[in-house]
From TrEMBL, chain A:
Pfam families: Fer2 (PF00111), Fer2_2 (PF01799). This is Unannotated protein. GO terms for molecular function: 2 iron, 2 sulfur cluster binding; metal ion binding; oxidoreductase activity. It comes from freshwater metagenome. The keyword Metal-binding applies. PANTHER family: OXIDOREDUCTASE WITH IRON-SULFUR SUBUNIT (PTHR44379).
UniProtKB/TrEMBL annotation, chain B:
Keywords: FAD, Flavoprotein, Oxidoreductase. The keyword Amino-acid biosynthesis does not apply. PANTHER family: XANTHINE DEHYDROGENASE SUBUNIT C-RELATED. It comes from the Bacteria. Pfam families: CO_deh_flav_C, FAD_binding_5. Residues 1-177 form the FAD-binding PCMH-type domain. InterPro entries: CO_DH_flav_C, CO_DH_flav_C_dom_sf, Diverse_Substr_Oxidored, FAD-bd_PCMH, FAD-bd_PCMH-like_sf, FAD-bd_PCMH_sub1, FAD-bd_PCMH_sub2, Mopterin_DH_FAD-bd. It comes from Klenkia terrae. This is Xanthine dehydrogenase family protein subunit M.
């Protein structure tokens, strides 16, 4: 079937099988491989992307369910070569080890900051409860999100050509 | 993991959904948030040949006051219920319980109708709806009918819905500022409950009490409710919480421990509902 969606600001129309998952569509059809597939069972959050302003686990959404939606992946976060505040904070606070969970962590963190621009340590941990890091570097991840919050509202948004993130 | 092949039908109204269910018969399944259905389809535990996606049916997304009840559209996502000002003011148990389901990404997709239809004995919102004595409104080829939630959950993943029907609305009493408590015991914050207890003071003066994961379906703690109605103390009533239940044993808890949790969590939920103690937080919960 045909599916159309706006991905990182670009209109994309493709032919997909109904059973194609959004994660596979992004990776295999659109070549956007920053979105990782970890558990493939809705547990780890590595595949988190933002659809119509809300974080979702793209291994558990059909590509067809994103028809007409605005989708943002990690590739869509930087503007004019400038990293998104959450990306910059993950770098400065070293919020990653092997990096496998990082794409999903960054996307989920934007959702956390959209919902709560000034979270406490505890609130960051609760907001990231759907994301697992096998390297267990949670401490620096939490520090990175707290650091990103200092950048103000931009930390909870995706680039302006795109959608508003609500929670 | 990829589901086996199916045909996909997108509907934008309840009438279209009913027509599609009639056309495609028993091999068709409704797709709402997909957060129970797609995982089991990926494991090939479910192999529907047609999915009828109702997530575009805007008429199923609402939380509104209707007389002395709150009416909630079946397509309302857990996240929207959690944030709904109407729900927070009129029936605060529900948005709180919605906030305890899974993690944010799950709450962004999962719907109230989906969790009720799925009929998992460990599910949070169905437990709260049972304590509230909700009404399930279904639509089918013969129009709409109302099913009391106490008659809806029939057995393990089996409900009172007939073939060709879908859930369109959940109705609950407006409890306003009356007391309520929800105590969910998990090993990790975002898990399903090992056991959970909901207690809520209802407009007719009774207290509704329900339990998650104490049998093949979510259960009303009838012995507890009866004891409270007779004027027994919270301690005395909560001691009866495991009566009439048939919990399973698994790697998380055996029957004895689940029964203990049911009594303890019921007592806590009742005390919170009575304003005697504060709700447990993830940090303070210990059993
Ligand atoms: C990682 C993860 C963690 C979770 N944690 C929890 C938790 O802690 N507590 C909890 O309670 N739940 C939890 N859930 C389940 C979550 O709440 C699901 O979203 C919910 O159970 C199903 O809702 P859905 O809209 O996604 O339904 P779907 O998956 O779309 O559908 C589920 C079933 O209901 C049927 N259906 C859906 N809508 C209707 C309707 N309107 N009428 C008739 N039939 C319908 C479908 O055909 C299907 O059989 C979790 C899920 C995941 C993936
Ligand atoms: S790959 Fe989607 S949640 Fe793990
Ligand atoms: S950095 Fe290795 S999984 Fe998180």
């Amino acid at each position: 079937m045909q599916v159309s969606m706006t991905v990182n600001g670009q209109q994309r129309t493709d032919e997909v099988e109904p059973r194609m998952l959004l994660a596979h569509h992004l990776r295999d059809n659109l070549g956007l491989t920053a979105t990782n597939i970890g558990c493939d069972s809705t547990s780890c959050g590595a595949c988190t992307v933002i659809v119509d302003g809300l974080t979702v686990k793209s291994c558990t959404v059909l590509a067809l369910q994103a028809e007409g939606s605005e989708v943002t992946t990690l590739e869509g976060l930087s503007t004019d070569g400038e990293m998104h505040p959450v990306q910059a904070a993950f770098r400065s606070e070293h919020g990653l080890q092997c990096g496998f969970c990082t794409s999903g962590m960054v996307m989920a963190s934007i959702g956390v900051l959209a919902d709560n621009p000034n979270p406490t340590d505890r609130e960051v941990r609760e907001g990231l409860e759907g994301n697992l890091c096998r390297c267990t570097g949670y401490h620096n991840i939490v520090q990175a999100v707290l650091k990103a919050a200092e950048a103000g509202p931009a930390a909870g948004q995706v680039p302006s050509s795109q959608q508003e993130v609500s929670a | 993991m990829i589901p086996s092949q199916f045909d996909y039908v997108r509907v934008s109204t309840v009438d279209e959904a009913v027509a599609a269910l009639a056309e495609h018969g028993e091999d068709a399944k409704i797709l709402a948030g997909g957060h129970s259905l797609l995982p089991i389809m990926k494991l090939r535990l479910a192999v529907p040949t047609v999915l009828i996606d109702i997530s575009g049916a805007q008429e199923l997304n609402y939380v509104r006051v209707d007389g002395d009840q709150v009416a909630i559209g079946a397509g309302t996502r857990h996240h929207d219920l959690e944030k709904s000002e109407v729900a927070q003011a009129e029936v605060p148990l529900l948005p709180h319980v919605a906030s305890r389901v899974g993690d944010p990404q799950v709450r962004h997709r999962g719907t109230l109708g989906g969790t009720v239809a799925h009929c998992d004995p460990a599910s949070d919102l169905p437990t709260a709806l049972l304590a509230l004595g909700a009404t399930v409104v279904v639509a089918g080829p013969n129009g709409r009918r109302e099913i009391p939630i106490t008659a809806f959950f029939l057995g393990f993943f089996e409900t009172a819905m007939e073939e060709g029907e879908l859930i369109v609305e959940l109705r609950v009493p407006r409890t306003g500022s009356a007391g309520w408590g929800y105590e969910k015991f998990t090993r990790r914050e975002n898990d399903w409950p090992i056991v959970a207890a909901a207690a809520v003071h209802l407009p007719d003066g009774s207290v509704g009490v329900a339990l998650a994961n104490m049998g093949g379906v979510v259960l009303r703690a009838e012995a507890v409710e009866a004891a409270l109605a007779e004027g027994k103390s919270i301690e005395e009533a909560a001691a009866l919480a495991a009566e009439g239940t048939s919990p399973s044993s698994d790697m998380h808890a055996d029957v004895e421990y689940r029964s203990h949790l049911a009594r303890l969590l019921t007592q806590r939920a009742l005390k919170v509902a009575a304003g005697e103690t504060e709700a447990s937080t993830a940090e303070s919960t210990a059993a």
